[in-house]
Design a protein that fits this description.
With 122 residues, the chain is mainly α. It is built from 7 helices and no strands. α6 crosses α7.
Amino acid sequence: MIETVAEGLVLAEQSKLGMDNLHKFIQAIFPGPFALYSQRMISGDYYKREEPVVSIDMARHLAGEVLALAAASGTKLNAYEAGYKHMEMVQSHAGEKGDISGIYGAVRQESGLAYENSEGGK
């Protein structure tokens, strides 16, 4: 879910659709956690807070367990693999202060943008 929201927001920014427009759509169609993470990403909360809401270390550990289970059962989880790669980028960039929503910053970096969204979604 976080991976999808992050990718959508970066696409909205890069394509000039506008992150605010996508956020309004997310709020209308996927209220709750989707909208919450979208707002955290747009506002820059993913890199501004002193303590992570969801530690990137914990998130990577859990994602690694899921990927191990998938491998053992012969299941391919492309979205988890992409998310895990982005979690590694977050951990490399932010260290122990890294938050799971920092996946947005990693997707931004892959798209030629800065990790930090200093414009606040405008």
